[in-house]
Amino acid sequence: MYTEKIEMLINGRWCQGSEGKTQPLTNPATEDILTDVPHASESDLEEAIQASADGFKVWRDVTPLDRQAIMEKAARLMEDRIDDIAKTLTLEMGKPLAEAKGEMSFVIDATRWYGEEGKRAYGRLVPARVPGARQMVVKEPVGPACAFVAWNFPGTNVIRKVAGALAAGCSMLIKPSEETPGTAVAIARCFQDAGLPDGVLNVVFGVPDEVSRKVLGSWVPRKMSFTGSIPVGKHLQKLAADTMKRCTMELGGHSPVIVFEDADVEKALKVAAGFKYRNAGQVCISPTRFFIQDKAYKSFVDGFAERAQAIKVGNGMDDGVQMGPLIDARRLPIMEDFVSDAQTHGAKVVTGGERIGNQGYFYAPTVLSDVPDEAKIMNDEPFGPIAPITHFNTFDEVVERANSLPFGLASYVFTSDGDRAAKISQVLDTGLVGVNHPMVATPETPFGGVNESGYGSEGGIEGLDAFLRTKFITEMGV
What we know:
The chain has helices spanning 42-59, 64-80, 82-93, 97-117, 156-168, 181-193, 208-216, 230-241, 265-276, 294-309, 331-344, 395-402, 418-427, 460-465; strands spanning 8-10, 13-15, 22-26, 33-38, 124-126, 133-141, 145-149, 172-175, 201-203, 223-227, 246-250, 255-259, 287-293, 348-351, 366-369, 386-392, 410-414, 432-435, 454-455, 468-476. It is an alpha/beta fold. The chain folds into two domains: 8-251 and 452-476, Aldehyde Dehydrogenase, Chain A, domain 1 (3-Layer(aba) Sandwich); 255-443, Aldehyde Dehydrogenase, Chain A, domain 2. A seven-stranded mixed β-sheet has the order 14-15-16-13-12-17-18, with helices on both faces.
């Protein structure tokens, strides 16, 4: 049962939209309507923007030690409520309950890590050229921040923005996805209950373009962070340019997986197949283009198909389910088109390739073999449970093919040759490289892409620095 009450948070007050506009929230596994999501009116957004400005004036003067204490309390509240929040996440997004709980564990870890790292926003002294002068470089919060996030990780996408901003001393106005609002609301309740001052965190919902134009058109937010698709990211960046807001853009990718013939193929299969179908493939760093060296190709395809066929697909609330539905009905024909196009180009459907049932948005774990580079799925991010597999011969060939797209978020390599691992890690044109394992995202390490996958990093010291600006102070005779 969906129990989270969906409200907006504006200046410390939980509320509905002042004009009464809403949209339904659907469970993607059952197609049942869970509740209604309020929409902010223009006046609601104006209030939230002003609250963010006022909240910043308060929060920037709170010491990093005291900020960390509030963030730690929020993390403990999330721990206490993790079961309920995970259920909310599964009901609105569809991923298995175990995955939802794992995501919330990341949220808790990120909250704690950022709270501690906020105490280390160090500056430096620079030796002066003039006798008697003192030169200081200091870090200070950039100002009120705003964020817009996608639905696929309702907790992770939110906390990377919120925790980074709060640790740096910024206020945050965030619009989570209207398709997965409850997780963000539950997280925000933890921060409010932990004693966060009113206005420091504001949460709104509405028609995405209307909200983004209003918020980004204001001079109040000095920083914008976005997680989502490349076309939307480019649109938001253009809006942010009018007021010269700093931006962090975490956009889509199309991650190559390169398996050399000297790799431990069984290990590669176990890692890559499990990671591919996590969250039904709706992951920006999901492995999406499989390049297998010739001698390992057949065994890899056969093994991958065997693992895909064994995956239990169903309602994420049910015991033993390993993969849930796609987020919405709109995604089903997109999957069908990818498969049909691949077949037209000569690819073979080894397993899957069809919708499961007629209730809920389930699509079978799919494996395609002999997929040519010209197929749509080798050029456009599928964001679904389809694994296109092809083969390669030489090192130089696979590097050229892996780097042939304008995206550059994540890449994965499997090899037992240390020199080869080092060499390919240097030449792959991505922001993240995983060699023999897929763990490219932790709270303490930078997460972000290059080229059309965006710029800037979340996580690590880089994620804190994204919400800080640099000031140089020189003094004489003081």
